[in-house]
């Protein structure tokens, strides 16, 4: 039986320069249900598709509030995500207690990136099998970061990770120019549409399988204040799904009328 001698740990390179355990962790992210993140000038939005292991079980949590100015969406192993999100919560709480201010988003993302990369440099540890989309707001405005199991982090304008996420990325790339100047509700609508693109034909977005997280700035000019991270889950997401249906039905009628005129 074939055996790969280079995947026993995360510190050994293969002759091709690959670290197989990191690739296995990235595969765990690809197997997780999809999450989508978008950002404009005032808000950052996270949208996640929840999955239940079987009909009798509850749906898995996909979006976690880290602090009043930050939240994360997960794709991959939920247990690893819980470890990382708890670490982020501790760091944010420590910043508020020590310095009396929220932790900048890029700093906490760099910290979890360093923590994850350490696991690829010490024998006996393994990479985290989870990918994160981190949405938050600080003095520089709203931000969206992607975290990968290798420890790589990068700031994004829009992103989707997880199973069937390529369809969501295609939608985001096609409509990227619209995000910067759209309103809070329009940004949420774009996120739900991108999420809807990943569904198979026999499934729909419902109050049970959809989560939305929003954080941003409220007001105008120098008087803008942080709009605390708000999680829409369960019945609270029903108005957002209804608004999406109304928007899509309105666009369908416009297209039909244009075809008639032509």
UniProtKB/TrEMBL annotation:
SUPFAM superfamilies: N-terminal nucleophile aminohydrolases (Ntn hydrolases). One of its GO terms (biological process) is ubiquitin-dependent protein catabolic process. Residues 6-28 form the Proteasome alpha-type subunits domain. CDD domains: proteasome_alpha_type_1. Residues 241-262 are annotated as: Disordered. Pfam families: Proteasome, Proteasome_A_N. It is found in: Cytoplasm; Nucleus. GO terms for cellular component: cytoplasm; nucleus; proteasome core complex, alpha-subunit complex. Keywords: Cytoplasm, Nucleus, Proteasome. Residues 253-262 have a biased composition (Acidic residues). Belongs to the peptidase T1A family. The 26S proteasome consists of a 20S proteasome core and two 19S regulatory subunits. This is Proteasome subunit alpha type. It comes from Aspergillus turcosus.
